[in-house]
Amino acid sequence: MNSINTNKNNLIDEDPDVEKSYPSYIINRCLSGQIDSVMFANEMNKHPNLAKKLQYDFFLNSLRKRKRFSPWLRKDQIENLELVKRYYGYSNEKAKQVLNILTREQLSFIRDRLETGGKK
């Protein structure tokens, strides 16, 4: 990532073995989190079978030098989802539907029923 973003050194030309360890999926995923590089990452996502060296060269020569950091994008945790799943034995999708129906008092009741005691 640093060779693409900040110092612009072509590591694959210096050492051809680096191409084997180039993680194209990870690089695309990291660059898709930045507003100035999302379109470039999308272009590479359109061409997943492109050689790793070509993908690397595309990013190296297309992106401007800039320090980029974005936290890994993750799915949001839904509060109380695990409670409903454990209490009713539902799947994720079914528990999400039920969460929209349940009131705070009902969720509090479920939480009390599932409490096993001990330190938290």
Any descriptors?
0% strand; elongated; mainly alpha; 2 domains; 8 helices; Phage_clamp_gp62; DNA polymerase; 120 residues
What can you see in these coordinates?
By secondary structure, the protein is mainly α. The protein is built from eight helices and no strands. The chain folds into two domains: 2-62, no CATH class; 81-114, no CATH class. It has helices at residues 2-7, 11-14, 24-31, 38-46, 52-62, 81-88, 92-101, 104-114. Helix 6 crosses helix 8 (104-114). The longest helix is centred in the middle third of the chain and has 11 residues, at 52-62. It is elongated, with a radius of gyration of 23 Å. The protein starts with a helix and ends in a 6-residue tail after the last helix. The model has no long low-confidence stretch (mean pLDDT 88). This is DNA polymerase. One of its GO terms (molecular function) is DNA binding. InterPro entries: Phage_clamp_gp62 (IPR031868).
